[in-house]
Amino acid sequence: SELKFIVLLKRDHTQEQNQINIKIADLDVDLYPKDSVMMVKVNGVEIPINNLPYHHPAGKIQIRQSGEGIALHAPTHGLQEVYLDQNALKVKVVDWMRGQTCGICGKADGEVRQEYSTPNERLSKNA
């Protein structure tokens, strides 16, 4: 099966904040906090919050402000929602992706012992 998306989490231990990078279709999206404001970069270009929602030219991906954070929606690519704010990260996959993911989502099948499995099916102790 072909790779639909990658969601990478980077923890900044000095500021204790999460940053995420989402690779999906031809987009490289970064979501991160900066001076207590959530920031968005698409393919290396910063998108001002007041310019959101951002719609991918093909119309399949949307990035918008959601409460205190930023949400990316790309259901046709398998991602129902990726959400990041100052305190939380949430990754929801669409129903047809259940059992086909690995990493922080596990297989997204409700079974929790296999969380943090790598693509070669080895188990990692943490993310």
Automatic annotation (TrEMBL):
<keyword id="KW-0325">Glycoprotein</keyword>
<dbReference type="GO" id="GO:0032355">
    <property type="term" value="P:response to estradiol"/>
</dbReference>
<dbReference type="InterPro" id="IPR050733">
    <property type="entry name" value="Vitellogenin/Apolipophorin"/>
</dbReference>
<protein>
    <submittedName>
        <fullName>Vitellogenin</fullName>
    </submittedName>
</protein>
<feature type="domain" description="VWFD">
    <location>
        <begin position="1"/>
        <end position="127"/>
    </location>
</feature>
<dbReference type="GO" id="GO:0071391">
    <property type="term" value="P:cellular response to estrogen stimulus"/>
</dbReference>
<dbReference type="GO" id="GO:0005319">
    <property type="term" value="F:lipid transporter activity"/>
</dbReference>
<dbReference type="GO" id="GO:0045735">
    <property type="term" value="F:nutrient reservoir activity"/>
</dbReference>
<dbReference type="Pfam" id="PF00094">
    <property type="entry name" value="VWD"/>
</dbReference>
<dbReference type="InterPro" id="IPR001846">
    <property type="entry name" value="VWF_type-D"/>
</dbReference>
<keyword id="KW-0758">Storage protein</keyword>
